[in-house]
Amino acid sequence: MDAEDEIINIKNEIPYLRLDAYKRQIGFSGYARRVTQLFTIPRVRRATVASLVVMTAQQLTGVNVFAFLASTLFDQGDYQGNPTRGSLGLYFGFGMVNFLASLTAYFFIDKKGRRWLLMLSLAAMFPLLSATAWSFRADGTPQQGLVATFLVLYTIAYSPGVGAVLFLYSSEIFPQTIREVGMAWASSVCWCGAGILDLGVPSLIHRWNQTSVLCLFAGLDVLAFILVWLLVPGTERRTMEEMNYIFGVSTYRHIKYQVKEVLPWCVDYYLKGNKDRNPCPFLYRLARDAVGEGDENQRDEETEREGDEA
């Protein structure tokens, strides 16, 4: 019997691997019912909140101010260069840098994880967006060079994290039978947020100036970092079954763990330099992790026994 026949037999023996079983489950709950399940089933509701946070985080970073409103941004206030050339150059440069920098996510998105990339990206974007904002206050020719330099660095910080992760993360955290509804919800949140920015930001730029508007988004970037830290669980190297366990943990317990366990550990380890501190305790105790720990303990016992015999 070849491998293909074995796979067919396995699918026939395990109901949830059969396509007709999946179709029957979809038939039991219509589209409207699955929409309500986004907010009524606790495990799915936590995934819905996480997708809301990552999609909203992109809008809070202010990246779409440069992507959609470059001509308005460069045509107002303190910018001393040619507005048309500045906006056209920004569109081209932003697209090229965004494309090239996004490729780096390939090397880290599974190894380090989606959450790690998101938080690193948001943390780096705050100072770079602040520097871009204050570059508009520079006088003379250096202004254009400062704005371009910090904007390129800001885009490099954005692309492999917030730029690459949000749609991937949102597409994998929902159960199979409700995934298309969850992804539709997440996409609608993203593009509704972009539409609100397109309608509201131009009036802010006219009423204030570039520096004030970009500083506002730098502050919102900090808010996005906090929301991701508290409400977005990590999903790196996890199976669909393990996703159910991860999002089965209550939001309160996840926030409590981040505040009372992770934060003190990070302060002690990174800021105070206490390198002898024990590793940060895990929130999730998955079966394969427990098996791995058991195998490691067994190897340690065997090593000690061999040493005693020697």
H/I helix tally: 15
CA radius of gyration is 24 Å
What sequence of helices (H) and strands (E) makes up the elements? HHHHHHHHHHHHHHH
Fraction of residues in β-strands: under 5%
Q: What is the residue-mean pLDDT, rounded to a whole number?
A: 81
- Main beta sheet, described? none
Main traits of this protein?
mainly alpha, 310 residues, globular, 15 helices
Structure description:
It is a single chain. By secondary structure, the protein is mostly helical. The chain has 15 helices and no strands. The model is unreliable at 10-16 and 290-310 (pLDDT under 50).
Write the layout of secondary structure elements.
Layout: H1 3-13, H2 19-28, H3 31-40, H4 42-60, H5 63-68, H6 70-74, H7 83-102, H8 105-108, H9 114-135, H10 142-172, H11 179-207, H12 210-231, H13 240-246, H14 251-271, H15 287-309
Describe the structure concisely:
The protein is mostly helical and 310 residues long. It contains 15 helices and no strands.
